[in-house]
């Protein structure tokens, strides 16, 4: 997902710019549709049941002191834990461990107050209500016990809440956190500092960094509840991976063989994973990678993933490359990139040959960035050419006039955690809420001849009283075509903006979906060449946790699908609604998308194809005229030199 420019380089929109067909007046009207402040995030509709959470509560003597709200710190902590329990999804495995509550003095004082089982809200509230602070602060002991309390498998989170530093000597909590979290794949340690400063805050920040987690500052009781809910929901609502496990090779010679389908792997800092795909001489192929780091962990501007698809042999030819980087240093979020092999018109390109191709995924990591391994979700989509004799419609690289902005009362929904569980949306106005550091996913169907225009409008968010006037984060969006191909904007919209709590909108517009777009030298159109599900990803920067007063920030999503859906990609295809043989046409037209497979991706004959063209320049508008067999094209007054494989590099976009 594209990120805002570095501080001092924020770009302002041109005067009069229509952002995905949304005027400034409409944006303000959209914000008014958020009829009430978002006091807290609603429980996710479905829990990510492969995860688990244990809260570790400091119950040392200092927690019996006042917190400035008229309550003691432990009383406010009980209320905050109750808010977490109410916000978590039904059945999400959750437990509670305390330390310092058993006796007045002793560094062996830590106990499991509620086992990690399917969420029992009443039991959790009873357990925290019984806690009476009195003792010392054996933080390292409590972390060790919490790790043992969690299940042996799956994505596990320790959420530590403390108002002070450990007073029990060796081992140091930071060292213990680093040992427990290991490579960061299965265990994450988040910390919340309740009215801490100095050495206590430094220690909690160190624990979070060593534990591949995030530190949340809670200067008062309201902040404690807000930050605890944010951290716990990010754990429960993490990206839901799907696919068959595979281990990429460490070298090209050891590349792991993959076929069409979906896979999961991991990649470490500075590491390259290699995979081998066998391609025929006619089909097109898309290979994508979605990296899922722990949300909010430290990253650098240039951190990200680099993909390459190349032939094999003595003179291996690079068919396509792509890169995706965070472009910000607030914290990690999801990253996706894709490469493609699109057979050329005459079949004489080096990448047209049948045989073994190498797909590589490389991770770039700055020295100060988090060193945990990243889970990676891989997809290999394959698509046959159009049936012999099919004359494809001409390419369409024109966006046209921006449609009138959609109005109406928004419908509430909860976006998906990723591609596999993206929330299905249609043309209309929708309302969702995003946590700091979260990316939500939505999918919308686009048929042949149709185009997508959307805007994500972020609310006029109340900011914290203590927030600096210069405090800011970012909001961002990316769209993906079938095959998880990142879509470039064709509408002049902005896909990332700085966010300070004032209303702001990001969005994107596509050209009409046309088969022959895959051959044009136009980055705005090249990937918009297959009918099927398109994805919209909308993200909120991690630093919103230090800015927003509400737990989650409201967003209005205006989704517009324009154009008549055609019965197929062929020249002069009739409208789908009036085509009596629509079902037969769908089965024969090679570019219509199939249904969802078990992994949540596209299946059957509906594998789509990606373009290997670069962005900007080249053939535009109606330059290509379709003719011939199997989607071959004849150029109107233009040679075929433009129809060659090119390298793509999108290095200014961040996650998702």
Task: Summarize the structure in words.
This protein has 656 residues and is α/β, with parallel strands linked by helices. The chain has helices spanning 24-32, 73-87, 121-129, 139-149, 173-181, 198-210, 221-236, 582-588; strands at residues 51-58, 94-99, 110-117, 155-162, 187-194, 215-218, 244-245, 256-258, 261-267, 272-279, 284-291, 304-310, 318-325, 335-341, 355-364, 374-383, 411-412, 423-424, 428-434, 439-446, 451-458, 473-481, 485-487, 496-499, 504-509, 532-540, 553-562, 624-626, 633-635. Strands 3-2-1-4-5-6 form a six-stranded mixed sheet, sandwiched between helices. Strands 18, 20, 22, 23, 24 and 26 form a six-stranded mixed sheet that branches. Helix 2 packs antiparallel against helix 3, helix 4 packs parallel to helix 5 and helix 5 (173-181) runs parallel beside helix 6 (198-210). The termini are close together.
List its traits.
disordered N terminus; 656 residues; 14% helix; six-stranded mixed beta sheet; disordered C terminus; alpha/beta; 28% strand; 29 strands
How is the main sheet built? 6 strands, mixed
What Rg, in angstroms, do the CA atoms define?
26 Å
- Estimate the global geometry from the Cα principal axes: globular
- Give the termini separation: 5 Å
**Spans where pLDDT lies below 50 across 5 or more residues:** 1-49, 579-655
**Class from helix and strand fractions:** alpha/beta
Query: If strands are numbered along the chain, what order do they take across the biggest sheet?
Result: 3-2-1-4-5-6
SS summary, helix count: 8
Please state the average pLDDT score: 82
**DSSP helix fraction:** 10-25%
**Beta-strand content bin:** 25-35%
How many individual β-strands? 29
């Amino acid at each position: 997902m594209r990120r805002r420019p570095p501080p001092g380089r924020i770009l302002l929109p041109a005067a009069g710019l229509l952002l995905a067909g949304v005027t400034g007046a409409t944006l303000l009207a959209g914000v008014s549709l958020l009829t009430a402040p978002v006091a807290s995030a609603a429980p996710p509709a479905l829990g990510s049941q492969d995860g688990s959470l244990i809260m570790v509560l400091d119950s040392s003597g200092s927690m019996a002191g006042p917190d400035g709200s008229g309550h003691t710190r432990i009383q406010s902590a009980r209320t905050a834990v109750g808010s977490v329990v109410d916000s978590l999804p039904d059945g999400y495995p959750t437990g509670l461990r305390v330390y310092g509550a058993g006796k007045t003095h002793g560094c062996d004082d830590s106990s499991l107050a509620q086992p990690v089982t399917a969420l029992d809200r009443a039991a959790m509230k009873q357990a925290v209500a019984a806690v009476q602070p009195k003792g010392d602060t054996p933080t390292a002991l409590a972390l060790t016990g919490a790790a043992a309390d969690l299940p042996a498998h799956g994505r596990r989170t320790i959420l530590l809440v403390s108002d002070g530093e450990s007073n029990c000597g060796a081992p140091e909590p930071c060292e213990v956190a680093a040992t427990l979290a290991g490579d960061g794949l299965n265990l994450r340690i988040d910390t919340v500092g309740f009215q801490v400063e100095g050495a206590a805050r430094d220690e909690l920040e160190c624990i979070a960094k060593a534990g591949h987690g995030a530190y949340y500052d809670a200067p008062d009781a309201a902040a404690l509840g807000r930050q605890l809910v944010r951290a716990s929901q990010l754990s429960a609502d993490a990206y839901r991976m799907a696919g068959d496990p595979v281990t990429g090779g460490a070298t090209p010679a050891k590349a792991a063989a993959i076929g069409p389908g979906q896979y999961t792997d991991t990649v470490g800092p500075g590491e390259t994973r290699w995979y081998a795909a066998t391609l025929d001489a006619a089909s097109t192929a898309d290979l994508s990678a979605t990296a899922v780091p722990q949300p909010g962990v430290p990253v650098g501007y240039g951190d990200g993933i680099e993909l390459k698809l190349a032939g094999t042999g003595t003179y291996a030819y690079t068919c396509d490359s792509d890169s995706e980087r965070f472009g910000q240093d607030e914290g990690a979020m999801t990253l996706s990139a894709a490469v493609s092999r699109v057979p050329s018109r005459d079949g004489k390109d080096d990448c047209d040959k049948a045989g073994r191709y190498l797909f590589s995924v490389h991770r770039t990591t700055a020295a100060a960035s988090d060193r945990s391994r990243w889970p990676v979700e891989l997809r290999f989509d394959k698509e046959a050419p159009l049936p012999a004799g099919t004359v494809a419609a001409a390419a369409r690289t024109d966006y046209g006039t921006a449609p009138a902005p959609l109005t109406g009362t928004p419908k509430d929904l909860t976006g998906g955690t990723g591609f596999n569980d993206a929330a299905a949306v249609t043309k209309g106005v929708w309302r969702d809420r995003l946590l700091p550091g979260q990316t939500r996913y939505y999918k919308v169907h686009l048929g042949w001849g149709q185009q997508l225009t959307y805007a994500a409008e972020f609310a006029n968010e109340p900011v914290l009283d203590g927030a600096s006037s210069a405090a800011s984060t970012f909001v961002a969006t990316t769209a993906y075509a079938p095959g998880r191909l990142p879509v470039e904007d064709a509408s002049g919209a902005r896909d990332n903006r700085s966010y300070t709590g004032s209303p702001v909108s990001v969005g994107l517009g596509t050209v009409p979906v046309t088969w022959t777009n895959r051959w044009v030298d136009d980055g705005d159109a090249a990937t918009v060449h297959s009918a099927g599900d398109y994805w919209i990803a909308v993200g909120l920067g991690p630093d919103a946790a230090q800015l927003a007063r509400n737990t989650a920030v409201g967003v209005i999503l205006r989704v517009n699908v324009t154009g008549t859906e055609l019965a197929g990609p062929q020249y002069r295809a009739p409208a789908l609604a009036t085509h009596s043989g629509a079902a037969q046409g769908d089965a024969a037209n090679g570019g219509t998308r199939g249904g969802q497979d078990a992994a949540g991706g596209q299946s059957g004959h509906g594998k789509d194809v990606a373009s290997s063209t670069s962005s900007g320049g080249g053939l535009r508008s109606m330059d290509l005229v379709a003719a011939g067999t199997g989607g071959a094209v004849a150029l109107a007054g233009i040679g075929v030199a433009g129809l060659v494989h090119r390298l793509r590099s999108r290095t200014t976009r961040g996650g998702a």
